[in-house]
Request: fold
Amino acid sequence: MTPLNTISSKPLRAALALGIGLGAAIPAAMAIAPVPVSAAEGDLDAAVAALRGIGSMTADFTQTDRNGTTIPGKLYLKRPGKIRFEYAPSARMLVVSTGKSLYLIDYEVNQVQRWPIGNSPLGALLDPSRDVKAYGTLIATQSPDVVSVEVRDRKRPEFGMINLIFLRDATAPGGLRLTNWVALDSQNNRTTVRLSNQSYGAAIPDSKFTFTDPRRTGGRR
Reply:
């Protein structure tokens, strides 16, 4: 999935939607050389605890491609493995993970694409079998309040990489609030997702993680 230069491009829409396509650069404070994990082992443990501690979360998000094109929307996350990127109506697309598969629904052309949740950088957020600590490396930042973790399986480069960025916050699960991530696919295409107005513990119905299949009248998955 190689991003193109227009938002109407199907490859770009797919890359944007799945967080595997990236446009904005990693902030300089979060792009310094990795530090030895042993020097800050507690922060890696805290990041893992923060991810595992999110039973459910809602947030507003903005998603930016490499050309600076930004799409806003609403995020719904529910463990294990469920997520919904509800984009602004003008985007005419939706991304949903049902717990096993990640779907891109493109209402502009009435198409549906499917990926196993473990086969993208978002697997670090969604795949219950993904061991974030085993594949995670702490990245140095310029602020003691920011924790940055790069997650990649070097034996499976086709799964890409995700850089998860947290802010210390005693009110968030594990004491860290997930604020944004930068995802890199196997073709080095990047996507930045920034979160705001995070809310934890809400009862999100499973119906949020279904969708109307545009290829079938009245169909849902």
